[in-house]
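Cross-posted from the bioinformatics board.
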Amino acid sequence: MLAAVTVLLVYQLVGEIAVVAFRLPVPGPVVGMALLFRLEAEWLPISVSLVLSTLLTIAVTAIVMRWLLARRHPGQRS
Amino acid sequence: MSTPLAEIWVYLAATPLLFLTLTLLVYQAAYWIYRRAGFHPLLNPVAISIAILVALLRLTGTPYETYFGGAQFVHFLLGPATVALAVPLYAQFDKLKRALWPICGALLAGAVTALVSAVGIAWALGASKATLLSIAPKSVTTPIAMGIVERLGGLPSLTAVLVVCTGIIGAVGAKYVLDALGISDHGVRGFALGTAAHGIGTARAFQESDEAGAFSGLAMGLCGLVTAVLFPLGVWLAARVIS
């Protein structure tokens, strides 16, 4: 158990070092007020976009993958 | 005014123990509700936990910083948990190898759909430019999404909220969409969930099966990578076209 956690943390540490070394994007500060304002002003386009786009993405990804799998293995249902 | 109760509260409010324990207890309770309801997708345990915790923090007037002092330990475990996704992934290695091209195709289609549809719909409904920038990477994991948005001049904090909402929408809605389309392959179901709904979708996929979870974890990682490249490229192209 402890050995497994150690291994995970070592890998994570290597990853974090890579993030710093290669200047990969890191989460920034919290701008609370601007955030609240925007959510109140634009809740309609935001919520409609989130729901429709997320469900559409699930559908498109699944359909494309099923189609490509079926093309690769003819006769095998997926 | 120094009643024993107040003293206990002052002590508890100053240690991370209270809010760490509270977070874990609330999730246990939410999962219990979820299980009792026969794993009904609308009763997603992440969504229920957030609702309960927000209500508790508001009722007690606890600032988010105080809460996060305890919750940060759970937050921290997100790192090793992500690394550990390699284990189920390895178990599915043979199936993954055979599905290499379908995975690449589905990934590209999914990542582009997520970006274009989120921005397109919000734009059509009159969202501002900063909101469009912030909503675009909604389907990728929080640190990547926030990082991209920050560099492009959006609002990373808004993105963090939108990413979590997206995860819950995906986790709740996926079953209905995938069942309606007749998608029965667990690899495909998981991959679609991970592409559209990152870590929260992956947690949902693991409830279906290890295979769905493995494909979802893979999709989450790849989608983050592809979006980190595609989104800045798209913004750059759009700026070129406009000017």
